[in-house]
Amino acid sequence: MSSNESKKVFDEGAALLLVDELRGIFASGTTRSYEWRVSQLKALSKLVDDREQQIIEALRSDLCKPPLETVAYEIAMLKNSCRVALKELKHWMKPEKVKTSMTTFPSSAEIVSEPLGVVLIISAWNYPFLLSLDPVIGAIAAGNTVVLKPSEIAPATSSLLAKLLEEYMDNSSIKVVEGAVDETSALLQQKWDKIFYTGNGRVGRIVMAAAAKHLTPVVLELGGKSPVVVDSDINLRVAARRIIAGKWGCNNGQACISPDYILTTKDFAPKLIDALKTELGKFYGENPLESKDLSRIVNMNHFARLRKLLEDDKVAGKIVYGGEKDESKLRIAPTILLDAPRNSLIMKEEIFGPLLPIITVNKLEESFDVINSGTKPLAAYLFTNNKKLREQFVTTVSAGGLVVNDTTVHLATHTLPFGGVGDSGMGSYHGKFSFEAFSHKKAVLYRGFKADASVRYPPYTKTKLRLLKALIGGSILGIIRAIFGWS
């Protein structure tokens, strides 16, 4: 939609007209062609190249996000997604030949990936550029028509997305709807062929309930309390830097896969805290509230939410580093808490900010029980050189994704599916998984008119029954026995 159109009232009637229009475009077959898909992926890649500075400025306006974070974690990752899709698309679209069984002999079979149709993508505010357009790449590559609903909590990026997609993309097939709750509600009332939502569990439940009315499949990219288990037999300086990069270097903790809390032994915790303090001082200086390398808290509501977590009586006196706040600038310094009680507010909900509790255990293996006693996180991290501990971690911890000896970097590996499990979401994307998220795997079986065996037709006899059972079982010896009537 153009900026003028987006200022008009977008209600349920407007949403219905929009979906009907896109359904007509999809029915025409325009988006199914390889040429259209490639043209749109190239246009998206050009958009990113041409307008990099505008994107940086929009994210600076919405989140005070450091340009390096924008370039590395939003722009570069999006360009890489486009590159992978353009390189692999022909292969992804090609029907996959599969074997057939004796039951249908002679025959051949294949799996055909077909686009689902008209899809809705509802994006998040914390990585508003990447999390809007990365799913769009998958939807385009799969051959769908698309409606993108960016987050109103990042208004500068939302406005820029509406403007740029209108300028660079096929406006008949790819639409942007700006707005807040009313506009999102109007969109959710419609029948879609898939809904892709990135955000929190509370809204995720609303999206899923709306989708259920139309039996619409959903991908929910949510979050959770992503733990970091830290062993003592490690390179402590490197581990501290990688934890900091994943926590405060990712939008100041406002990321779905940011480390949410640390688990380590009572004996090792003081050493870990000292290492984190040293590296945080190097990265953000003596007054981190003034650092240009830390994003601000997105808005007053989230600032108040984080302040409430810190002001909980149960964590009073637990702060061992940081804690400084500047409400006028919506800034909170990197903050470490030691031994926050498991029943405190900060340990009950996803933090989504610059606060990092450290929970201590007697033996590191107890950490896995702590993790598994809560809801399944989107990510879980382990720092260790112990092979047995690593294997136990991979075997026993259920999370959307696991990383050993680093944090968050699995997000950049397009050969891995990215998504949650349980309360942290359902479905996955990135690379080929994005293409598959917006495709239907259609089973196709080919037969000729020869070898039309009478065994499947009435009148049914004991011989036919034996033969059918043998055919379905796939036993050549059984078939021979059935034919000759051998027991």
From TrEMBL:
Entry annotated with the keyword Oxidoreductase: yes
GO molecular function annotations of the record: aldehyde dehydrogenase (NAD+) activity
Q: Which residues form the signal peptide?
A: none
Q: Which GO terms describe its biological process?
A: aldehyde metabolic process; response to abscisic acid; response to water deprivation
A Pfam family recorded for this sequence: Aldedh
Task: Answer yes or no on keyword Aminoacyl-tRNA synthetase.
Answer: no
Q: Where is the catalytic site?
A: 221, 256
Q: Which reaction does it catalyse?
A: an aldehyde + NAD(+) + H2O = a carboxylate + NADH + 2 H(+)
Q: Name the keywords, alphabetized.
A: NAD, Oxidoreductase
CDD domains in the record? ALDH_F3FHI
A single GO cellular-component term on record: cytoplasm
Against InterPro entries, the record matches this protein to: Ald_DH/histidinol_DH, Ald_DH_C, Ald_DH_CS_GLU, Ald_DH_N, Aldehyde_DH_dom, Aldehyde_DH_NAD(P)
Q: Where is the Aldehyde dehydrogenase domain?
A: 35-444
What the record says about family reads:
Belongs to the aldehyde dehydrogenase family.
Q: Which protein is depicted? A: Aldehyde dehydrogenase
Query: What is the species listed in this Swiss-Prot or TrEMBL entry?
Result: Acacia crassicarpa (northern wattle)
